[in-house]
Amino acid sequence: MAAHHEEEVKLLGVVTSPFVYRVQLALKLKGVQYEFLEDDLENKSEVLLKYNPVHKKVPVLIHNEKPISESLVILEYINETWKGYPILPAEPYAKALARFWAKFIDEKCMLAIWKAAWTFDEKDHEKGVKESYEVLQILENELKEKFFGGKTFGIVDIVGISLAFWLPIIQQVVGLQLLTNEKFPKLYNGSQEVINLHVVKQTLPPKEALFVSFKNHHERLTTSK
C-alpha cells in the first residue's frame, strides 16, 4: 500500500529503548520523515495514554492520527505502508521465518537476558543466565551468513540490535558475560558488523546515555531489595 503524499507521522518513544530504536531505524531505511515525541515513562504523558490506552507503553507510531503500538507490529506496518527498502522478505516462507526469529529474540532472548540482568534472587538469576546461554546458542547455530536473512539486512537483524548494542552495555553495568566472542563467535562478530553498518551507526543513541540509564535502574533495584 503506497502512503499518501501529504501525511503526518509521529513516533512516541524514549531514546534509551531498543524497541523504539528499531522503529526509528525502519523509518530511516524507508526514508520516512517523522516527528519524535519524547515521553517520560515515570510520568506518562496524556498523549501516550490517549494513543496507547491498553498497554500504556512505547513505541507508538501515529500515522495520520491513527496509532499503531507494539514494535514488531509497527515494523510490519511500516514495511507495508511505505515503498523502498524491504524490511521483510516478499516470499511467504522467508517472511514467516523472519517473523518467527524476530519473535524468538523478543520473547525468548530478551526475557531471559532481562531475568539474568535484573533479578537478585540467586536461583532466578542463575536460571536467567542458563536460559540466556541456551537461546543465544540457538541463534549462534542459526546464523549461517552475514545476516539472519542471508545477504540482506532485514527485520531479524533490526530486532537483533537489542543484543548487538544494548546487551553489551547491560553486561557492563551488572557485571555479566553472556554474549562474548569466546562463547558465541558467529553471533558476536555478526552483531559487530550490524552495528557498524552506516545506517545503523548514524542512528544509534549515545552509549553514555544508555549506560547512565541502566546504571540508575540497577541502583534503584539494588536499593529496593
What's the topology here?
Elements: E1 9-13, H1 18-30, E2 35-38, H2 46-51, E3 60-63, E4 66-69, H3 71-81, H4 92-118, H5 122-142, H6 155-174, H7 185-195, H8 198-201, H9 207-223
How large is the share of residues in beta strands? 5-15%
Question: Tell me, what's the shape?
Answer: globular
* C-alpha termini separation: 50 Å
Tally of contiguous helical segments: 9
Largest sheet: 4 strands, mixed
Biggest sheet strand line-up:
2-1-3-4
Average pLDDT, rounded to a whole number, is 94
Number of strands: 4
Which range best describes the helical content: under 10%, 10-25%, 25-40%, 40-55%, 55-70% or over 70%? 55-70%
Structural class: alpha+beta
Radius of gyration: 18 Å
Q: Unreliable segments (pLDDT under 50, ≥5 consecutive)?
A: none
Which series of helices and strands comes N to C? EHEHEEHHHHHHH
Describe the structure in your own words.
- The radius of gyration is 18 Å and the shape is globular.
- The protein has helices at about 20-30, 45-50, 70-80, 90-120, 120-140, 155-175, 185-195, 200, 205-225, and strands at about 10-15, 35-40, 60-65, 65-70.
- It has a four-stranded mixed β-sheet.
- The chain has nine helices and four strands; from the N terminus they run βαβαββααααααα.
- Helix 1 (about 20-30) links the parallel strand 1 (about 10-15) and strand 2 (about 35-40).
- It is α+β, with helices and mostly antiparallel strands.
- Helix 1 packs antiparallel against helix 6.
- The chain starts with 8 loop residues before the first strand and ends with a helix.
- The mean pLDDT is about 95.
